[in-house]
């Protein structure tokens, strides 16, 4: 690859990322059930109804997996804690085995010279809380905050940076309006409540953690370019509405304490009563912002449909194995946009990557497409840096092939190939290329 570590400033953090449900094995180690276990079991929700019960069995393979992060010359490892592994019922009784596991995992990172980057919620809502309405229930702010304090009370002294929530758009809109992720609702009222409560939970937890003395607290937003399908005013309006729901809702709430009018137009009638009083709580000062970036999508007006009355139109560019358009310029755009929103705060690319139908041929996986993808996205990040954005880190998604949510095990995002029968790990060409590019001089 063209990229070298030395192209970026001294101290810039290069990492790789995973999440608990996608790799650990959700039925191992005394974890309670989460809403993905039940969602996946319902036919039609997930390819072949696959779930994360076993996944990569990372709870058993973690020493080998952390060795891979270290040997890839990464500085940092972004991981998440499964809420239901720590608190099988979501609150109350602690699963000591689960807590001990994360304790060893963090020590394992430190022993290998890796910075631990923790995400508190990457989509594993405990089933008991999901049955009480999950993100649609206003009590979730308190449940999440209590859980966050528990985890940070045990791990916080060794964590480099902590994110409250991974991708609130997915937690709220994708899961409660589009119905593609657990709990699989298609309900504007539940969606509006989740859109608000996920942010309230973030703000409430952030405030509580800071009061406990924790620092380096942030959130991870996924940003997607919402482009108009044509220059027609109605298509431009459709793209603006999607941009408001996808990107601006979250970015403006956490930085300005307000929601964009284009999204309120459809959501306000469904928001919980008194939502305005929560906005100051939501806009807690942050220590950093994470941006996950994957693609650009085109939107057209869909007259006669209920709000937001838009439909997706395929983009012109080359596509990944998930059919997502490859558009590195979008990463540069969002870093500039995030920089304008958060000013001097550090920004990190907390995920980017691509799915590809990688195959082992003569013992090797030659994923040249992924090498090119990483190269072009690192270059885009470099341009944002040169333009003055306070970008300080870049994390590749993902370390391992893993459970790709509604796509089951079909879509491979790893730098390291996983054989899901034998669970053997095999570094792909992209891993080797990155390890070489990230070699430290001296
Ligand atoms: C990230 O989400 C997640 O953090 C990570 O867990 C996941 O494995 C990774 O990306 C790869 O997917 O409306 O069904 O067409 C990325 C955000 C949101 C991007 C949904 C694609 C379109 C899905 N994704 N979006 S759909």
TrEMBL record:
Substrate binds at residues 22, 122, 166, 294, 397, 404-405. The active site is at 167 (proton donor), 351 (nucleophile). It catalyses: Hydrolysis of terminal, non-reducing beta-D-glucosyl residues with release of beta-D-glucose. GO terms for biological process: cellulose catabolic process. Its EC number is 3.2.1.21. Keywords: Carbohydrate metabolism, Cellulose degradation, Glycosidase, Hydrolase, Polysaccharide degradation. One of its GO terms (molecular function) is beta-glucosidase activity. InterPro entries: GH (IPR017853), GH_1_N_CS (IPR033132), Glyco_hydro_1 (IPR001360), Glyco_hydro_1_beta-glucosidase (IPR017736). One of its GO terms (cellular component) is cytosol. Belongs to the glycosyl hydrolase 1 family. This is Beta-glucosidase. The lineage of its organism: Bacteria, Pseudomonadati, Pseudomonadota, Alphaproteobacteria, Rhodobacterales.
């Amino acid at each position: 690859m063209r990229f070298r570590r030395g192209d970026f400033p001294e101290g810039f953090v290069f990492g790789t990322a995973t999440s608990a449900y996608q790799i650990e094995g959700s039925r191992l180690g005394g974890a309670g059930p989460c809403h993905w276990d039940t969602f996946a079991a319902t036919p039609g929700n997930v390819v072949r109804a696959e779930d994360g019960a076993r996944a990569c069995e990372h709870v058993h393979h973690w020493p080998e997996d952390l060795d891979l992060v270290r040997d890839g010359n990464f500085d940092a490892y972004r991981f998440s804690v499964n809420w239901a592994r720590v608190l099988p019922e979501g609150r109350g009784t602690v699963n000591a085995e689960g807590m001990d596991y994360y304790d060893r995992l963090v020590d394992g990172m430190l022993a290998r010279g890796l910075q631990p980057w923790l995400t508190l919620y990457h989509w594993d809502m405990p089933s008991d809380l999901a049955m009480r309405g999950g993100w649609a229930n206003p009590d979730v702010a308190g449940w999440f905050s209590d859980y966050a304090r528990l985890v940070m009370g045990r791990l916080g002294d060794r964590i480099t940076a902590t994110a409250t929530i991974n991708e609130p758009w997915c937690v709220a809109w994708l899961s409660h309006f589009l119905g593609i992720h657990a709990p699989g609702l298609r309900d504007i009222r539940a969606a509006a409540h989740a859109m608000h409560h996920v942010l309230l939970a973030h703000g409430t937890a952030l405030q509580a953690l800071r009061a406990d003395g924790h620092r380096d607290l942030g959130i991870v937003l996924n940003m997607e370019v919402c482009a108009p399908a044509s220059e027609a005013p109605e298509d431009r309006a459709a793209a603006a509405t999607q941009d408001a729901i996808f990107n601006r809702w979250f970015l403006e709430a956490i930085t300005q304490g307000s929601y964009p009018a284009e999204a309120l137009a459809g959501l306000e009638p469904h928001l919980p009563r008194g939502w305005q009083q929560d906005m100051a709580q939501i806009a807690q000062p942050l220590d950093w912002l994470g941006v996950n970036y994957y693609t650009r999508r085109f939107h057209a007006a869909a007259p006669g449909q209920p709000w937001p009355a838009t439909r997706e139109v395929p983009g012109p560019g080359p596509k990944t194995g998930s059919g997502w358009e490859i558009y590195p310029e979008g990463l540069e755009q969002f870093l500039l946009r995030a920089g304008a929103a958060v000013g001097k705060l550090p920004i990190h690319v907390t995920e980017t990557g691509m799915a590809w139908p990688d195959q082992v041929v003569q013992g090797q996986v030659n994923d040249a497409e992924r090498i090119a993808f990483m190269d072009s996205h690192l270059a885009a990040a470099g341009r944002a840096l040169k333009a003055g954005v306070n970008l300080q880190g870049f994390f590749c998604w993902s370390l391992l092939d893993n459970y790709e949510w509604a796509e089951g095990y079909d879509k491979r995002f790893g730098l390291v190939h996983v054989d899901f029968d034998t669970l053997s790990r095999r570094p792909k060409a992209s891993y080797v290329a990155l390890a070489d590019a990230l070699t430290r001089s001296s």
